[in-house]
Amino acid sequence: MAVYIFVLVAVAILGLLEYQHRYSVASNNHESNKKRINIYLILIVAVFLFVGGFRYQVGTDFLTYYQGFSCSWEVLLYKFCTLDEPLIFLITNLCRTIWNEGVLVIFVEHAITVLLVIKGIRDWEDKSITFPLLMYIVACSWTGSFNGIRQALAGAIIFAFSKQIGKWWWLRYALVCFVAYLVHNTAIFILPILLLAHRKIDLKQIFIISGVAVLMPYFATVALSLTNSSLNTHYAQHSINILRVAISIVPMLMLLFTSRTFREENNFLANMIIFNALISFTTRNSALLYRFADYTDMYLMLFIPKLSSIFARNSKNIYRIIVFALYFLYFFTEVQSGNGNINNFQWVFSHIGE
To answer: H helices within the chain, ranges in order?
Structure first.
């Protein structure tokens, strides 16, 4: 647990320093201030990459990625022709061509995921990125990427390019989901959710979202069949921790206390939060099906910080402290549960060359 505390403290300090100097640049456009902001961002990225990129046996199926997912270039070409998740094999092949060690594969895959997530946060958050980054950790999206590496990477691709830009935004979503599909086949099923999330929140939209959420287990079953995943395993039939459902539902309920203006300004995020809560609830009885919520719960790290705007100025910090404390307790519970060997953190350095 100590290593995760270190990451939280380091990100909090560096994030606050980045926030302070961001406003220094706004008031005093000096080149040295710009460089300092870049340094703080680089250091934040470095903290994430050092811990997540140099872990060993931390996360479900770690050795599958550490030792596997390489193939001949002829087989890789066939995978591209058949769209059989070729990008993860391409990344592995390129890494092993440079240095035939699993540590490089894990590091590069984690680096791509984290950089995409931070890119997405900066697209949506024009003020401080500190709280969203802390939520990225304590809401378990970051450590979740240790477990489902392919799905985390696919989700990061979608998250990084999910902000609506231009009149051809729907075509951009289709392209992004297709690229994510080349990493993990289930990503293509998130495209309808992204498109629906741009609808205005009203009674009709609530019915549409509810219908999609109810049907999600059936969609998920079809999607998982594409990856040859079995629903008859213990993992597939294992119910998830009810706390996971709770931390998804509470933000949705808080929408009831927001103004119409807030919902209109954050329409897409609010819709994604509703999708996330209902998908989490409908797939709660299968840990395998529940992983479809991983594509939507990433938006918690954007939505929860924005909720602070509904509070008076003096209450915002109290809200942030309470929310962070509650999510930290959830994070602590998840780490201590031992799922994916997250709690048993090991460094890779003594294992290179095995």
So the answer is: 2-27, 31-53, 62-67, 73-82, 86-98, 102-124, 130-138, 141-147, 149-160, 169-181, 191-196, 203-226, 242-254, 260-265, 267-282, 287-290, 300-306, 313-336
